[in-house]
Every structure is written in structure tokens, then in C-alpha cells.
Amino acid sequence: MNKFLALLMAILFSACSSSQPIPQWKDKSYRQLETYKNDFLADKEDATEPHFRKAREAFAAGNDLDLLAKAYLTRMALQAAVLTDIDDSDFIRLDKLQPSALNRSYYDFIQGNFSALQKTEPPPPYNRLKSAIAGKDVAAAAREIAGMENNLSRLIACGVWVKYLPYNDSILQIAIATASEQGWSRALFAYLYKLQAYYQDRKELQKAQDIKERLEMLKK
Fold it and tell me: Is the pLDDT of residue 174 over 80?
């Protein structure tokens, strides 16, 4: 999904030639969205989501519903990445006003609407998961997700898989390693708790206890 943010940045700035200054609303909206992304994953964003609100206001000032929809998709993807509930209400309203096939493909992936994606092509880099999703092949999914170069794309793929499909500890460990490397504490704890529950459900009690003690030390 960092590729999605890069695409968003390209769209924001593509209308500006090198001889023209970037419109202030475009520069402000992207910077606020980037700050929101980093603070959300690091659990530094206030519950009122001030940086997302500022990004949304900047996009609205440009009167571009497509970019505003992409901002909401970014928030939804981050929610999926940390295994929280996904709020799609505003995106649905925007998509009705200005439909976009690209935006809808991201939406379908984030929401686990995999039947819709089998008829088309999942958005890159998640199109690599198409066959694994169709077969609910956890081992293949783990290989494909681990091979994703972008850290945020990898974490989002883990989140979507864990939310909607059968998973194993390999996928959870990929997410934990990715979050740890980036210092994304909100994501890290979400997947550590999920891993603890995974081991408990399978009666691997010593592993579950080890994760519990790790969590206690990390949150002390």
C-alpha cells in the first residue's frame, strides 16, 4: 500500500509542471496523510485522528472526490493492517458519487470481497495473492507476502489475510517482523496478541506463555 501512497503522490503532483509551484492543498494533504500513516501505525495518532482530518480537509479544498476517496482507502488499509474494524461508510458515499475501478479493486481487497477480485485483477502488489486466495493456500500466501518488497504492503497483506482467511503462525510472524523493523508498535502488539491467541487455541501453551511474557515486558 506504500505503492498506493506513491501512486497517490504521483496523482497529486502530476498536474504540476516543473515550472509551476505545487498547489498548497496538494502538498499539505499528502504530508498530513503521510504523518497520519506513520503515527497510526506507531500508535501515536490521537483517537480523533487529527492528521487524517487535516488531510481530508486539504483534499476537500481541492474539490477532488477521487483523491478524497483514495485518502479514505488509505485509512481503511491501515485499519486492516492492524486488525481493527474497518470504517468504509465515507468511501462508499464517495464511490457512488464518482466510481473508480482502481479504487474499487483496492476496496474489494481490503474488505475481503475476494469473489469480486476473481473476476478482475487484484491491485498490485496483491495480485500475487490471487491464486493463494482462490485456494486458501496458507503456505503459498506466506511465501508471496514475505516476498513483497514494501513493508507497508506486506503488513496490509498480512492483515487482510488474517482478517478473512485461514492463517498460521508464519503469516503472523511476518507481520510481527515487519512491524518490529519499522517501529510500528500498534501493529506489533496487535499481531503479538493474535499469535498468543493462536497458540492458545492450538494448546501450544508454552509458546502462548512465552508470547504473554514478551508482551508484559514490552508494555512494562
Answer: yes
